[in-house]
Every structure is written in C-alpha cells, then in structure tokens.
C-alpha cells in the first residue's frame, strides 16, 4: 500500500499492513489502475534485481518480465472493469529464464492492483527432474520386463529340457534343480521390482473397496498353495477403504505373505485381521504369531532389499514390505509394525475409510 502523504498520521492498522507488505517473503507490488508501480517490497525488488526506487513510478512490468507476462498484464489492465476478471494468473513460457508466476488482483476499495510475483524456476526444474525420473523408470521397467525375464525363462526352460531328455546324470540332478530354483527366484525378484516401480507411476483409482473380502481372497490363495499347513486365519467383517482395489490387494498380499513366511516354524499359522474407523480413517491391525523381529531394526523393515531374516528363516527378496508401504502412501495412508522376537508381529495399516457401496455406479 502507498506510504501516507507527508503530514498525515499513520494509524496502527495502516502501519501494520504496510510492515506486513514490506517484510513479506512473497514478491509484492501495488500498481495504479494505469499500471504504474506505486510501491514495491524488498522481496520483489530482489527478484527483479533492481532497487525499489528504480521500479516505482514506472510501468516496471514492461521491463522486468518476459514478453508474454508483460503483454498479459497490459491486456488485463486495458480491459474495462466490468469485463475484467478480479484475479488472473500469468506464467512465463516454458524454457524462459528467469521463470515467473505473476498473480494480479484488483483492489476496488483502494483503487489499484496488487501484483504478486514468484520465481517458479526451481519448481519447473523439479518437474523436469520428476519427468526425467519417470522416463528412466519406464525404460528400466521395460528392460526388466523384456530384456531380463526372457533370459531367465530361457535358463529355466533349458534346464527342464535337459531333465526331461535324461541328459543329466543322477548325481547332477540336484544341481539342475538348484539352477531351476535360482532362475525362479530371480524371476520373482524381477516381478517384484517391476511392481515396486509401477506403484507410484500409475494413478490410483478411488472407489469403495471391501477390505475384508480382499483379505479373505489373499488368505485363500496362501492356503491353496500350501494345503498341508495348519492355519487359522480370522478376518473381521465389514472393513471398507477407499482406493484402488488392485493395489490394495497387492498391499494386503505382501503383508499376509510376510506373516505366512515367518510363521512357517509354528505348529499352526495364526493370522488375525482387526479394524476400526476413526475420523474417516480405516485403521487395520494384521497380527501373526510368527518369529517376530527386533524393534531396533524396525526402520529397515520397509526399505527395499533390507532383510531382517535370512533365507533359511523365510526371508525373501526384500521388496514385499517396501511395495506395501509405497501402496499405502500412494493412497494417503501409512503402515508400521510392532513386534517382539519369538512372539509374532502386528502390522498397523491406515487408509481412507469408505462406507459399503458408497460411490458405486447405479446397477453395480
């Protein structure tokens, strides 16, 4: 706001507003209806690289900003009040340096215009880095899918042919089986890597998801794959979340798989799923009575390739819980774990809650 004329008394309120204007981190200027810069704060002067005095009393935007923004400001100022939007946002063209975002807002009571300026060069560079990272991830995912899995399938296939043709002596068959098992483990690792890369690159759908049903589905898959294992899996009914059904199933699969693997030494595998809704959030607790882990290493649990147990204790490729955390975070949720060695673990999962059938299309 303009400084008070000489001889006038500045009220406390006016002084407060002026000091807020002068010391604001955002670049601010007050313009007359004709476009003259009446007052400029220190932040905007620093962005423009000129002292405030050299900007005041001129149509400084014509020299400070690139042609696109300067033209946009002139056009907005020239538009009659009744046809002019009260607020407009202008940005420098892509590739322009420096890069600005300028917001113009009419101040009818003061008879002027407020101009706010932000340097968005860092923001654009960050977007460019994110775009480049996404492209790199896409290339890596393509390479993993096509260039690495094919040789692994070839190794497993040739090993099977050697076995079926009887070309390997009996003494060598254990080694042949190790080759096939190693190829299968490597293929499973590649699959997990692909899933890990894809989680944050794919948009998540937002729809009501029956979490209880998904848990039952995942539990059935585990039991079908190991029919000789005694298991008792208890799942609370009526648990609903809002999110992407496919990816929430992936999250639950990884948590259940973790509980299943580290309960292999128990006479009976016990997994319990409980849940409650608080403040619009579904809070799940997935508990097992497996071997547990030392909470001193809990910070490593959800990091890629960080294993708290060896393969002889059920440790896998080290990506399952990292995938689970990424899925939870992409849904605006979280996951954490509590455990004691020899006494099992509980995974606490928080997701946006949903009501049964809320948001479903008619007829579904």
How would you describe the overall organization of this protein?
- With 364 residues, the chain is an alpha+beta fold.
- It folds into 3 domains: 12-119, PAS domain (Beta-Lactamase, 2-Layer Sandwich), CATH 3.30.450; 124-199; 207-352, Heat Shock Protein 90 (2-Layer Sandwich), CATH 3.30.565.
- It contains 10 helices and 12 strands.
- The strands form 3 sheets. Strands 2-1-5-4-3 form a 5-stranded antiparallel beta sheet.
- A hairpin with a 5-residue loop joins β11 and β12 (345-352).
- The chain is elongated, with a radius of gyration of 31 Å.
- The protein starts with 11 loop residues before the first helix and ends in a 12-residue tail after the last strand.
- The model is unreliable at 4-9 and 360-364 (pLDDT under 50).
Write the layout of secondary structure elements.
Blueprint: H1 12-23, E1 27-31, E2 37-40, H2 42-48, H3 52-55, H4 61-64, H5 67-78, E3 87-91, E4 100-107, E5 112-119, H6 121-164, H7 173-199, E6 207-210, H8 211-225, E7 231-235, E8 240-243, H9 245-261, E9 269-278, E10 281-288, H10 320-330, E11 334-339, E12 345-352
Parallel strand pairs: 7-9
Antiparallel strand pairs: 1-2, 1-5, 3-4, 4-5, 6-8, 9-10, 10-12, 11-12
Helix pairs in contact: 6-7, 7-10, 8-9, 9-10
**Backbone shape:** elongated
How would you name the CATH homologous superfamily of the largest domain? Histidine kinase-like ATPase, C-terminal domain
What is the count of helical runs? Answer: 10
Helix coverage percent of residues? 40-55%
Q: Unreliable segments (pLDDT under 50, ≥5 consecutive)? A: 4-9, 360-364
Fraction in beta strands: 15-25%
CATH level 1 name of the largest domain: Alpha Beta
Look at the structure and give the mean pLDDT.
84
Spatial ordering of strands, largest sheet = 2-1-5-4-3
Distance between the termini: 58 Å
Largest sheet: 5 strands, antiparallel
Based on CA atoms alone, the radius of gyration comes out at 31 Å
């Amino acid at each position: 706001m303009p400084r008070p004329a000489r001889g006038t008394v500045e009220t406390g309120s006016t002084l407060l507003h002026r000091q807020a204007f002068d010391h604001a981190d955002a670049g601010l200027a007050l313009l007359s209806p004709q476009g003259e810069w009446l007052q400029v704060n220190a932040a905007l002067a620093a962005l423009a690289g000129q002292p405030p005095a050299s900007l005041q009393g001129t149509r400084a935007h014509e020299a400070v900003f690139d042609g696109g923004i300067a033209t946009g400001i002139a056009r907005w100022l020239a538009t009659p009040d009744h046809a002019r939007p009260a607020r407009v946002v202008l940005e420098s063209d892509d590739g322009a340096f420096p890069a600005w975002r300028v917001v113009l807002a009419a101040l009818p009571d003061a008879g002027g215009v407020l101009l706010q300026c932000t340097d968005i060069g860092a923001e654009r560079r960050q977007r460019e880095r994110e775009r480049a990272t996404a492209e790199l991830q896409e290339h890596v995912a393509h390479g993993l899918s096509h260039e690495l899995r094919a040789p692994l399938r070839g190794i497993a296939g040739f090993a099977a042919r050697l076995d079926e043709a009887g070309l390997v002596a009996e003494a060598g068959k254990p080694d042949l089986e190790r080759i096939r098992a190693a190829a299968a483990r490597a293929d499973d690792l590649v699959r997990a890597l692909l899933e890990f890369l894809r989680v944050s690159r794919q948009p998540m759908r937002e729809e009501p998801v029956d979490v209880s049903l998904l848990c039952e589905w995942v539990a059935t898959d585990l039991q079908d794959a190991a029919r000789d294992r005694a298991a008792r899996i208890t799942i609370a009914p009526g648990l609903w979340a809002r999110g992407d059904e496919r990816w929430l199933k992936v999250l639950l699969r990884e948590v259940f798989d973790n509980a299943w693997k580290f309960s292999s030494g128990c006479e009976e595998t016990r997994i319990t799923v409980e849940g409650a809704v608080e403040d619009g959030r579904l809070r799940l607790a997935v508990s097992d009575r497996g071997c547990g882990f030392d909470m001193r290493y809990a910070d490593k649990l959800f990091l890629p390739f960080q294993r708290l147990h060896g393969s002889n204790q059920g440790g896998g490729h080290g990506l399952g819980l990292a995938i689970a955390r990424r899925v939870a975070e992409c849904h605006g949720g979280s996951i954490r774990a509590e455990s004691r060695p020899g006494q099992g673990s509980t995974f606490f999962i928080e997701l946006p809650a949903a009501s049964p059938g809320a948001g479903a299309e008619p007829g579904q």
